[in-house]
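Service request form, structural biology core

Requester: graduate student, group of Dr. S.
Request type: structure prediction, single chain
Budget code: on file
Notes: please return the result as C-alpha cells.

Sequence provided:
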Amino acid sequence: MTASQPTVLIAGATGYLGRHLIQAYGDAGYRVRALARSPEKLSQAGLFIDDVFAAEATKPETLKGCCDGVDLVVSALGITTQKDGLTYDEVDYQANRNILDEAVRAGVGRFAYVHVLHADHMQDIAMVRAKSKFAAELEAAPIASTILCPSGFYSDLVEFVEMAKRGRVYLVGDGKSRMAPIHGADMAAVCVEATRQGLSRLNVGGPDTYTQNEIADLAFRALNRPRHISHVSPKLANSVVNLMRIMGMRSVAEPASFFLRASQINMTAPAYGTVSLDDQFREHASIIN
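Core staff response, request fulfilled:
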C-alpha cells in the first residue's frame, strides 16, 4: 500500500457484508471506492463512500479503470438470491475473475476474497464450486491474496426466528451439528485486520459456537414463545431439493442445497467478534413481532 491514505475497492458493496466492509474500512482510515451495479442502493443505505464506480462485474468492459489508483480489492461479490437469471459460474466465479484481471492490470497490491468455510466438503454444490474455482485462481494469480472463510452469517440465520414465529422450527437431521456464525460488522473487522497483516487464508467463526438445536432455542426465546422443533431426515430433505431441480426451481434449490449441506457438517472455526447471535435474534424479533 502507498504511504499516503490507502484506497480500497469493495466489490459486492450493496450486499449485507459489503455494506459492513465499507463502514469498517472507512473507519480504519481507508479511502473507500465501492463497485456497484446499482449505485442508488448505496445512497439509500446512508453510508459514507469516497467514490462509487458503477459497473456490471459480469461485463468486463464496464470494469475498465475500476482498480486504477487502488491499493487493495476486497470482494464479497456473489449471488445471494437468484433473481436475474445469472448463474453462480457467471457471478461467483467469472465476475470475480473479471475484477481480478483488472486488479492485476492496474498493479493492485492485494486482493481479498470472502469464500466459504470447508468448501472442500461441498464441491458438488454449484455455488461452492464456483467460489472454489475463483479462490484457486486467485491464489495462483500474480497478486498477493487473502482468502477469508466464514462459518456463516447471522443474517442468514434470522430465518430461524421467522420459523419460530410461525410456530415451529424445522431442522435437518438430529440438530447436533455445530457452527460458529458471525455478525457482518465483526466479519468486516476481521477482513480489515487480515488484509493489514497480509494473511493468506483465515477461517473465521463468531464469538460463540452453537448446535442447530441451540440456534432454534435462541429463536424461540427471542420471541418468548414455546419451543417446537421438528427434525427432518436428510434423505427426505435431499429428495425435496432434487424435486425442486426437476421442476425447474433452481433459484430455490441451489441455495437450499448449500444450507442443507452446511447444516450437516461441522462448521466451527476460530472465534472472532463480540456481537452475539442472541442479540441479533432479539433485534429481529422486535421488528417482526
